[in-house]
Amino acid sequence: MSKNHVITATMAGATLLLAVAAWRTDAQRGDPPSQTSTILGQALPGLTEEQQQAFSEGLQKFSTVETREEGLGPVFNGTTCAECHKAGAIGGAGIDLTISRVTRIGGIRNGVYSDLTDFGGPVLQARSLKEFDTSCPIDGENIPRQSNRANIFASLRITTPLFGVGLIEAIPAETILARTRQNDPDGVQGVANIQMNPETGKKEVGRFGWKSQHSSLHRFSGDAYLNEMGITSQFFPDDNLPQGKPIPPGWETVPDDDIDEDVEAFTTFMRLLAPPGRLLPLTPQVQEGERLFQQIRCTSCHIPEMKTGANPIAALSKQSVPLYSDLLVHRMGRNLADGIQQGLAQGDQFRTAPLWGASRRRFFLHDGRANNVEEAILHHGGEATASRDRFTRLQERDKAALRAFIHSL
Ligand code: HEC
Ligand code: HEC
Fold first, then answer.
1. Cα 86 to Cα 91: distance, rounded to the nearest angstrom
2. CB atoms < 10 A from the CB of 192, how many?
3. Separation of 168 CA from ligand 2 center, angstroms?
4. Which of 72, 84, 156, 352 to mutate to test the pocket of ligand 1 (most atoms within 8 A of CB)?
5. Cα separations (Å) of 335 from 144, 206, 380?
6. Residue 139: C-alpha distances to residues 73, 231, 243, 392 (Å)
7. Which residue owns the Cα nearest ligand 2 atom 10?
8. What distance in angstroms lies between residue 372's CA and the mean position of ligand 1's atoms?
9. Chain segment 275-305, per-residue pLDDT in tens
10. Torsion angles phi and psi, residue 4, rounded to 5
11. How far is CA 59 from CA 19, 113, 216, 264, in A?
12. Mean pLDDT across the chain, nearest whole number?
């Protein structure tokens, strides 16, 4: 793949140019420890020609700018998946804290948690087709302003990178379930966000999203197509109602039939997207940081490696996945709690954020409140309190080593 991708797309008569420079680093001087390249956005190594072709087609669909004629809106946050997922390469995290940071709302009504669909929840769509056609009678949505705001939670969520998510999907559920525990000396527990997947009719272990709210990439794709772009599909057939109100006639016209093909294509692209390779060389300082990371028990949650099971796609079969996460949700304390419930994940529970690729990230934690690794660590609370306190007590030299380790991922 070339160093620079240029996507040109025609949108409402205007040409949108998205130039995305693939990330390059000094570390590319060394040999990668595994087959995985440090250049982001490539396909997994070892794909068949047919799989490589499917990856390219998926990338194309993932980067296509949708229009009203293709089902976009009437309210939406982005016009293409790649609008938010593009840091480093297509598929990456968000590049800033504007459109790629979305708002999720929820609230308690009569003692029961609600997605607040009547206020436009669970995800607000900040934009509408008014951008392209002033006759559109609907505006994008803001956090609802009404008198009993105390019962409404609004949580900002930054865009997560998708590099290596196919490997995460291929980890057997039992491997994840085996990590939940009760008698940890630090009080670390972890809950698997198990939910019924309506697409398979089975209970599955969640692994994607800030609260491990989805178990499959296909499911996440349909959800994102609906909630970020306003495009319905087989398993997400109902349009978002802006502020809970019905969509005015004539502003939603496209049947779902062709849409499932897109959802399949996004899924294939993401499934075959290579993980972020580790930056080299591994200096003595990095190695010391890695030792400390284990010693102060960051590894209780940020598990260095899991393995995929047998998989029909050879490149995903029996592979090591150096993700630095257990994919469980943990109670993280009041400071991080956002009140939002998703499946079994409660308001203060979050998925252990995978740390692979952390060197190429600019914002950290679910709402992007941390600008660097150290800030992110200091915000840890709840089950991570003991581990965080051990970090705080480290000498500056050791803190620097630990940071260097995370910056090598
Ligand atoms: C407006 C910005 C935006 C657009 C457009 C967007 N996403 Fe996302 N994406 C996000 C955010 C924010 C998250 C984190 C959501 C959460 O967990 O609350 C996310 C997370 C994901 C994840 C979970 C990855 C992980 O780390 O577990 C997948 C998969 C995904 N998006 C796929 C897609 C696909 C496919 C499309 C296009 C149909 C898309 N996204 C369009 C913002 C966006
Ligand atoms: C109890 C489990 C747990 C422990 C122990 C833990 N973490 Fe975390 N970590 C998390 C969770 C959960 C998040 C995501 C929190 C959020 O987004 O609100 C996270 C997020 C992070 C992030 C930000 C990543 C991102 O994508 O935004 C970094 C960096 C990090 N942890 C480093 C560490 C370090 C270093 C230690 C040891 C001092 C540590 N963590 C210990 C659970 C843990």
1. 5
2. 23
3. 18
4. 84
5. 23, 24, 8
6. 11, 17, 9, 46
7. 352
8. 22
9. 999 998 999 999 999 999 999 999 999 999 9
10. -125, 135
11. 15, 37, 18, 11
12. 89
- Please enumerate in sequence order all residues whose Cβ is within 8 A of that of 244, keeping only pairs 6 or more positions apart, or say none: 117, 118, 119, 120
C-beta of residue 163 within 8 angstroms of C-beta of residue 91: yes
Q: Which two tokens stand for residue 352?
A: 């252990």
396's CB contacts (< 8 A; 6+ apart) are none
Residue 353 and residue 325 in contact, taking contact as beta carbons nearer than 8 Å: yes
Ligand closest to the CA atom of residue 105: 1
8 Å CB contact between 379 and 369: yes
- In the structure encoding, which two tokens stand for residue 162, read together? 């998708």
Name the token pair of 154.
């609004």
Encoded tokens for 1: 């793949």
Q: pLDDT digit string (tens) for 327-367?
A: 999 999 999 999 999 999 999 999 999 999 999 999 999 99
Who lines ligand 2 at CB under 6 A? 188, 210, 296, 298, 300-302, 330, 332, 336, 350, 352-353, 355, 358, 364-366, 373, 376-377, 380, 383-384, 387-388, 391, 406
Ligand 1, atom 17, residue with closest C-alpha: 209
Cβ contacts of residue 155 below 8 Å, gap of 6+? 103, 104, 105, 106, 338, 339, 340, 366, 367
The residue whose CB lies within 8 Å of the most ligand 1 atoms, and thus the one to mutate among 59, 75, 81, is 81
Count of all residues that appear for the chain in the document: 409
Return the residue matching tokens 């049947």.
Answer: 255
What the block records as the tokens of 268 is 């294939």
Long-range contacts, stretch 372-376, CB < 8 angstroms, 24+ apart? 373/403, 373/406, 373/407, 374/399, 374/403
Ligand 1: lining residues by beta carbon, under 6 Å: 77-78, 81, 83-85, 99-100, 102, 104, 157-160, 162, 165, 208-210, 217, 220-221, 224-225, 228-229, 266, 270
Question: pLDDT digit string (tens) for 14-72?
Answer: 333 333 333 333 333 344 445 578 899 999 999 999 999 999 999 999 999 999 999 99
